[in-house]
Hints:
- The chain is α/β, with parallel strands linked by helices.
- The protein is built from 13 helices and 9 strands.
- It has a single domain (about 5-320), classed as TIM Barrel (Alpha-Beta Barrel).
- The protein is about 45% helix and about 15% strand.
- The chain has a 9-stranded parallel sheet with strand order 6-5-4-3-2-1-9-8-7.
- Strand 3, helix 6 and strand 4 (about 130-135) form a beta-alpha-beta unit.
- The longest helix is centred in the middle third of the chain and has 21 residues, at about 165-185.
- The two termini are about 35 Å apart.
Amino acid sequence: MNGSFDSQKFAAAQPAGERFNPHITCAFLYSITRYGYPPAAEGMVRYVNEMADLGFRSIELEGIGADHLARVYADRGAIRAAIEARGLSLPVFCTVLPGLGSADAAVRRRSLETFEMGCETAAALGAGAVLDNGPLVPYAFPPDMPIHRHYSQEVLRNVGLPASLVWGEYWKALAEVLRAACDIAAGYGLRYYLHPCTGSLTETTDGFLRLRDAVGRENLRFNFDTANQFFVRENLSLGLLKLGGELDYIHISDNHGQRVEHLAAGDGAIDWDMFFSALKRIGFSGQLSIDVGGDESGIENIDEAYLKTARWIERKNEEYGIF
């Protein structure tokens, strides 16, 4: 984990005044990689400035669980001031609330109340959307298990399901709570993105589309994630074609296809020319959010990984004319 900021090395790596295209976003995984999961909520202003110092004009922020989110909410004025002072945009604010997918109605209800605080925070910070992991299948995880960014396939293969779970009833209740979440988000003028991760009901494009049809809300969108979807063997170009013009937010990172990892672009096995050709074909002109890092990726210099990927996207955009 790269928890210290080497200003001399950074100055040498980044040309003076380098500023990336505003369609290139720095995902919050940058701060997570530097400071651990979750990074302290009281450090948000610092995280904003560090991402701006790299040259990004578009960034992500997160509220991770109820307590973390409450602190971000309390500091929203100072965070908004920092965003504006650095001339940044915040297309997405992530609200990480796995309880929305719980099989327990009381947990879903409490999570929905917290979700509204997340939407109010997002709107106060000037975001256009909120984002969360797609709902996990309601496995019977130990009650003291902390929130994870990714659950390993070994854990998911060996965890049970609640004895009371009736799938049809759960699916109906899940659609209802996500419909309510979409309506809350819409009340704040926000889109609501679901993120694909292993074990979730949206780990593939098809999984998202099935859930979206059940929810039936226009502001429910998919956060395409190249590394996660490549890992679960999805054909990325086909996924892009299925989403078409509804797609406007993508997490960009590379992967070898053998395990969960989020590598700098070009360091894995994804065929990026095929990917950008598909982006061009569907007329994509949204945000490409660099989502590189995490403990699972073993990146020694996270600053250079983000700079490398941002410059690479700039070159790909010159070649393909995406935005």
